[in-house]
């Protein structure tokens, strides 16, 4: 696999700020001869970031959104792209902004350590 691509933040600003954060790890299998086109198409999706690729046409992708519905819609959009053979959801996580803030506070709280 190649090194992760550095992409700008493609989070969809039209989504309401619900306080929820969803992230999905996805493997996309694309036709080798069209791999560059598929990567370019993926890079235009809101909240999508390509992290690596293999010589046999597999891509590592993350999707970020404010709801599970938006993640599901983006998975469907990826599957519908020309030259995409298959999409596999490998990981999905949901957190609220409050729980993330609490985790960050706990990580910096030195009183927790003896």
UniProtKB/TrEMBL annotation:
InterPro entries: Chaperone_NapD_NO3_reduct. GO terms for cellular component: cytoplasm. Residues 1-20 are annotated as: Disordered. It is found in: Cytoplasm. It comes from the Bacteria. Residues 1-14 have a biased composition (Basic and acidic residues). GO terms for molecular function: signal sequence binding. Keywords: Chaperone, Cytoplasm. PANTHER family: CHAPERONE NAPD (PTHR38603). Chaperone for NapA, the catalytic subunit of the periplasmic nitrate reductase. It binds directly and specifically to the twin-arginine signal peptide of NapA, preventing premature interaction with the Tat translocase and premature export. Interacts with the cytoplasmic NapA precursor. Belongs to the NapD family. This is Chaperone NapD. The lineage of its organism: Bacteria, Pseudomonadati, Pseudomonadota, Betaproteobacteria, Burkholderiales.
């Amino acid at each position: 696999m190649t090194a992760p691509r550095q992409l700008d933040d493609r989070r969809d600003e039209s989504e309401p700020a619900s306080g929820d954060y969803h992230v999905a790890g996805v493997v996309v299998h694309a036709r080798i001869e069209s791999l560059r086109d598929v990567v370019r198409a993926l890079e235009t999706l809101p909240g999508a970031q390509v992290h690596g690729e293999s010589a046999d046409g597999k891509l590592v992708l993350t999707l970020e959104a404010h709801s599970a519905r938006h993640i599901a819609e983006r998975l469907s959009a990826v599957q519908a792209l020309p030259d995409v053979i298959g999409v596999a959801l490998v990981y999905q996580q949901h957190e609220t902004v409050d729980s993330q803030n609490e985790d960050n506070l706990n990580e910096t709280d030195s009183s927790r350590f003896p």
